[in-house]
Amino acid sequence: MKNIPRPCKSEVEKYLNRWDSLENYVLQESSLYKLFHKTYPNNNDINDILIKASSLNDFYSTNIFSIFPVAKHILELDIDKRLKSGDTTLVNDIANVTIGGINKHFYSFATKYCSHHNADDFPIYDSFVEKVLLHFKKIDKFEQFNSSDLKDYSKFKNILISFKNFYNIDKYGLKDIDRYLWQLGKEYFPKKYY
Description:
Blueprint: H1 9-20, H2 23-39, H3 46-59, H4 67-77, H5 80-85, H6 89-95, E1 96-99, E2 102-105, H7 107-117, H8 127-140, H9 153-166, H10 174-188
Antiparallel strand pairs: 1-2
């Protein structure tokens, strides 16, 4: 069992300060913020969606090898009202796309696409966040869930809120918690490349 420091305000602050020193991530995020909120805030033009989806795919290495069908799918969903209202069912609707007759489920990408439009209502899922949440569930039993629950977006969001409440770090927004958990996961559960 890895000896990961227990979540608390000082740990969150430590990782948020560390985040601010990571120039490449800070600049990527500010570029994406400009793209999603100032340059192309809506999702009713395929060109706008394509540039946002391509940028996310590149910056986050989401490994979508054919981004056009994903952008077209997002356009067809007419998502702007649902993004603003924080409709968590939107994530699975975006994630489930057919490319070349094959059904794909781009869950992590969909959380990132929604989050970059509305970070207050759409936390980002990725494998590092999953590993940290499962670790602290095992250690402190802050919530009853299993790995597959994290792939159900409404449950995932509720688990993150429970995590914040249990460790008394609820003053932080979901974006801050994401940055904290992602860095913690990257540090303590690094991916092994063979």
